[in-house]
Design brief:
This protein has helices spanning about 45-50, 75, 95-105, 110-125, 140-150, 170-185, 195-200, 220-225, 230-235; strands spanning about 5-15, 20-30, 35, 60-65, 65-70, 80-85, 155-160, 190, 205-210, 215-220. The chain has about 260 residues and is α/β, with parallel strands linked by helices.
Length: about 260
C-alpha cells in the first residue's frame, strides 16, 4: 500500500479570537500535483506553515511521507522542501554559494551538493547568474534559486506558497516545467496560488478552503465538472457582486 505524501487530520490554529484553520482534514496522494486554493485570509499560508513544522497547531496532526511532523520532526523535514511566498535568503551569497550552503547545512556530502547544485542551476536557467549575488537577483530569479535550495536534498514533497506570483512568463514556464519533471519522477508538489488558470492547468487534485474550513476537495475533474475553475471557486467561496453599488460615474467623460 502506497503511503500518502501528506495527511492532515483535524488541523486547527487560532490567533486570539480568530480561527485561521478550523479542523482541516485531507490527504495528498504521492506523486500528485496538489493545489490549495482560497481567498485572501482563508488560511492557506497557515496550513502550509503547520504542515512544514514552522507553526505548531493548536489541535490535530499532520504526516509527511508517513512521519508525524511534530512527533518526529527530523524524519518529516528531511522528506520535505518548502518555499514560502517571500523567501528569506542570505542575499550576500551568490546563487551557487546559497545552494551549496543550504546543502551543507543539511549534512549532505560536498561532492553531491556541488553536482546536484550545478544541475539544478542549469535546469532553472540560473547557470549564467550562478556567480551573481542573490541581492542582485530579480524576483523570478530569487524564486528559482529558492526552489533549487528546496529540491537539493531530493524531498518526497515540495511545498510552495504562491510560487508564480509576480514573475514574468519566461520564469513561470521554467518553474512549471521543473515542477512537472519533479512529479513525473514520483515527487509530490503542494502549492497555493490565486491564479485559477495556473491551478487548473497544473493540478490533478485540489483543496479549496474559506475561513479556515474545507469547502471543496477532490480531483480537478470532479470539482470543475466541465466548468472553469474560476467560476467554481467564486461560487464556492461566495464571491462579491457589483450589484447595488453606484459606479455609473466610471468611464464617464463628464466633470
Amino acid at each position: 500500500m502506497t503511503v500518502p505524501a501528506v495527511v492532515f487530520n483535524g488541523l486547527t490554529k487560532r490567533f486570539g479570537s480568530k480561527v485561521a484553520v478550523d479542523g482541516v482534514s485531507a490527504e495528498i496522494p504521492a506523486g500528485s500535483f496538489f493545489g490549495i486554493c482560497g481567498p485572501n485570509g482563508a488560511g492557506k499560508t497557515t496550513l502550509l506553515r503547520m504542515t512544514c513544522g514552522l507553526l505548531r497547531p493548536d489541535a490535530g496532526r499532520v504526516e509527511v511521507a508517513g512521519h508525524d511532523v511534530w512527533a518526529d520532526p527530523v524524519a518529516a523535514k528531511s522528506r520535505l522542501g518548502m518555499v514560502p511566498d517571500s523567501p528569506s535568503m542570505f542575499t550576500r551569497l551568490t546563487g551557487r554559494e546559497l545552494v551549496e550552503f543550504t546543502g551543507l547545512l543539511r549534512g549532505m556530502k560536498p561532492e553531491v551538493v556541488q553536482e546536484r547544485g550545478s544541475n539544478l542551476l542549469r535546469l532553472l536557467d540560473l547557470e549564467e547568474a550562478a556567480g551573481t549575488l542573490v541581492a542582485d537577483y530579480s524576483l523570478g530569479m530569487s524564486k528559482k534559486v529558492a526552489i533549487a535550495c528546496a529540491l537539493l536534498h531530493n524531498p518526497r514533497v515540495l511545498f510552495l506558497d504562491e510560487p508564480f506570483a509576480g514573475i514574468d512568463p519566461v520564469a513561470r514556464q521554467v518553474l512549471e516545467e521543473t515542477l512537472k519533471r519533479f512529479t513525473a519522477a514520483g515527487g509530490t508538489v503542494a502549492f497555493s496560488d490565486h491564479s485559477m488558470d495556473v491551478v487548473e492547468r497544473l493540478c490533478d487534485r485540489l483543496l479549496i478552503i474559506d475561513e479556515g474550513r474545507v469547502v471543496l476537495a477532490g480531483t480537478t475533474a470532479e470539482i470543475t465538472r466541465g466548468r472553469r475553475l474560476q467560476e467554481v471557486f467564486v461560487e464556492a467561496v461566495g464571491g462579491s457582486s457589483t450589484e447595488g453599488v453606484d459606479i455609473t460615474w466610471l468611464g464617464s467623460t463628464s466633470d
